[in-house]
Design a protein that fits this description.
The chain has 192 residues and is mainly alpha-helical. The chain has two domains: 59 residues, Arc Repressor Mutant, subunit A; 127 residues. The protein contains nine helices and two strands; from the N terminus they run ββααααααααα. The radius of gyration is 20 Å and the shape is elongated. 29% of the residues are buried.
């Protein structure tokens, strides 16, 4: 979508996506330095060299910025989760375990970046993580392998129930990190 909005010191941004990218990068810089809770729209505007009004042209507020950042990271993470799942085509329990572990321990690929969804940022980010978008990603990933697993093993594991527990496990292990060995031991207790 084309726009002709002024940007910082009177410069113009030619398209909506470029403006959003600049603001999101500025928000990440602020969230890393100050934390999500302490960052204000004014902080984001200052780092982007724009007015608060400009930020509000692109986003409805800080919550909208957080959601946009998490959506981007979620998409990147699930691309990797799909690659991991392919490695365990015929072993659904192990595929599920490895995918949950990866999602729970995922960090953005940029070296030195603070994880925006764990630690001090967890409470602000949590509402944007385990939501309908995440559920749809898990559904896309698990539907066929679970169906095949159920058929091969004469089981009736419900996909919706599985998605609910997977999302909560990922959040739990993100907020209270464990080693992979501790994680695997916990899953064995569930007898997957």
């Amino acid at each position: 979508m084309k726009t002709n909005k002024r940007w910082g010191n009177g410069a113009r941004v030619d398209d909506l996506d470029t403006g959003k990218k600049i603001l999101l990068k500025s928000a990440v810089d602020c969230f890393i330095t100050k934390g999500i809770k302490s960052t204000t729209i004014e902080d984001v505007a200052k780092v982007a060299n724009v007015t608060r009004r400009t930020v509000y042209r692109y986003f409805n507020g800080k919550s909208d910025i957080i959601a946009a950042l998490i959506d981007i990271e979620r998409d990147r993470m699930f691309m990797k989760v799909h690659e991991i799942a392919k490695l365990y085509d015929n072993n659904f329990p192990l595929m599920l375990e490895e995918c949950i572990w990866f999602a729970a321990s995922y960090k953005p690929p940029e070296a030195g970046k603070l994880d925006l969804v764990s630690g001090a940022n967890a409470s602000e980010a949590a509402p944007h993580i385990d939501n309908d978008e995440s559920d749809e990603h898990w559904r896309e990933l698990l539907e066929e392998p679970l169906s095949a697993y159920n058929e091969r093993n004469n089981r009736k594991v419900n996909l919706d129930d599985l998605i609910k527990i997977v999302g909560r496990l990922v959040l739990s292990y993100r907020q209270l990190p464990a080693t992979k060995e501790q994680f695997k031991a916990s899953l064995k207790a569930l007898a997957l």
